[in-house]
Amino acid sequence: MEDTYLVGVQHTVAGRLSGGQKRRLMLGLELLGHRDLLFLDEPTSGVDATAALELVTILRRISMKVS
To answer: Residue 1 in 3-state DSSP?
Structure first.
């Protein structure tokens, strides 16, 4: 939750999340299931520049933790 900046919306129904929050939720779910290998198909398509930058920043921070 903290890695994907979703602590503030942890009790929100998924259908009420913004586009960027939904992307981060899907990323978090993927990380829970497949920590060694992560497949992302166009993770920033359909979101605004701010949400895209936030997602890439999260991915970068997580990759630094793993390496």
So the answer is: coil
Instruction: Report if pTM > 0.70.
Output: no
Predicted local distance difference test score (pLDDT) of residue 42: 85
Which residues make Cβ contacts (< 8 Å) with residue 55, sequence separation at least 6? 20, 23, 24, 27, 43, 44, 47
Mean pLDDT of 17-39: 81
Contact 63, 31 (CB under 8 A): no
Q: How far apart are the first and last CA of the chain?
A: 20
